[in-house]
């Protein structure tokens, strides 16, 4: 099994395409995960950089809907999904639905995503994320039951924040087991009961938080190895401020986003090397 690591564009929007792609390649990433530019020239320019640096691409689909309503959200999702597919992605990561939409509305968006991606045979995952249909470990079960083809991007940092726990309650064990079995991509960010991102996972005070996440990620990777997955994908996704804590008044970040994500990539690459040999 190959494990490919992707760099998030999030937090590096200030860099030119050329500088960002060169930096990503030099750091040893296999690709980039990002929201796709909608302008044709922009897409073409990004494709050029990905090709020149032999970088793979995971497209993000993020719909907000200016009025917050279902119809606008569905329309935006369709638009950004088609836009992402035009970039020939290895995979699509969808921030799907809203936590305040009805079950039937979220299911309509999920099914639309899956149908569209299937027409051109691109794997699509739905990210575990606050504010989306997948915002909570206690409310995702009906969606898993209703859609056997629903696949997920495991970002458990959100569930730690929402539940104010490390999801160790017995009542969540079956949901966690099924979620792990449905996960085809990992956002390797470490959350904790008071937030979606620890300031620095290397710090000793976050040892327990890191180990909880490593245990979940270990299970996902091991399952994919057992079933013979050819390529598995991981994006170390520690974000910039305000995800990254800052000092008061000066607003100086307490850690370096780029270095933290590099550290996480190196940790997981070494940890999972036994599956790639």
Please characterize this protein's 3D structure.
With 277 residues, the protein is α/β, with parallel strands linked by helices. The protein is globular and about 45 Å long. Helix 1 runs parallel beside helix 2 (40-52) and helix 3 (70-85) runs parallel beside helix 4 (103-119). The longest helix has 20 residues, at 207-226. It has helices at residues 17-27, 40-52, 70-85, 103-119, 141-146, 156-163, 173-181, 207-226, 257-271; strands at 2-8, 31-35, 56-62, 91-95, 124-127, 152-154, 183-187, 231-235. Helix 1 (17-27) links the parallel strand 1 and strand 2. It has one domain (2-275): Alpha-Beta Barrel (TIM Barrel). It has an 8-stranded parallel beta barrel with strand order 1-2-3-4-5-6-7-8, surrounded by 6 helices. The termini are close together. The protein has 9 helices and 8 strands.
**Mean pLDDT value:** 96
Describe the main β-sheet briefly.
8 strands, parallel, barrel
CATH class: Alpha Beta
Our count of domains comes out at 1
SSE order? EHEHEHEHEHEHHEHEH
Specify the structural class: alpha/beta
Shape: globular
State the CATH topology. TIM Barrel
Uncertain parts: none
Strand content: 5-15%
List keywords for this structure.
single chain, TIM Barrel, eight-stranded parallel barrel, 277 residues, alpha/beta
């Amino acid at each position: 099994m190959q494990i490919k690591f992707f760099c998030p564009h999030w937090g590096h929007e200030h860099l030119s395409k050329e500088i960002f792609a060169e930096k990503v390649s030099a750091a040893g990433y296999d690709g980039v995960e990002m929201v796709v530019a909608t302008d044709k020239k922009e897409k073409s320019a990004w494709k050029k950089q990905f090709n020149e640096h032999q970088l793979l691409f995971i497209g993000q689909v993020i719909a907000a809907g200016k009025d917050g309503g279902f119809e606008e959200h569905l329309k935006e999702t369709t638009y950004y999904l088609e836009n992402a597919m035009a970039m020939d992605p290895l995979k699509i990561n969808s921030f799907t639905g809203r936590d305040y939409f009805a079950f039937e509305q979220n299911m309509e968006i999920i099914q639309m995503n899956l149908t569209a991606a299937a027409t051109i045979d691109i794997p699509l995952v739905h990210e575990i994320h606050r504010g989306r249909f997948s915002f909570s470990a206690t409310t995702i079960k009906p969606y898993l039951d209703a859609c056997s083809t629903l696949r997920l991007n495991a970002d458990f940092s959100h569930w730690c924040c929402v539940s104010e726990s490390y999801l160790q309650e017995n009542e969540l064990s079956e949901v966690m087991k099924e979620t792990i079995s449905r996960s085809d991509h990992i956002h390797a960010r470490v959350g904790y009961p008071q937030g979606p991102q620890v300031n620095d996972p290397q710090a000793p005070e976050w040892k327990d938080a890191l180990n909880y996440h490593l245990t979940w990620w270990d299970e996902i990777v091991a399952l994919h190895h057992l079933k013979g997955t050819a390529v598995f994908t991981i994006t170390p996704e520690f974000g910039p401020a305000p995800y990254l804590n800052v000092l008061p008044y000066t607003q100086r970040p307490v850690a370096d986003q780029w270095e933290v994500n590099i550290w996480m990539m190196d940790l997981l690459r070494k940890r999972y090397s036994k599956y790639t040999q």
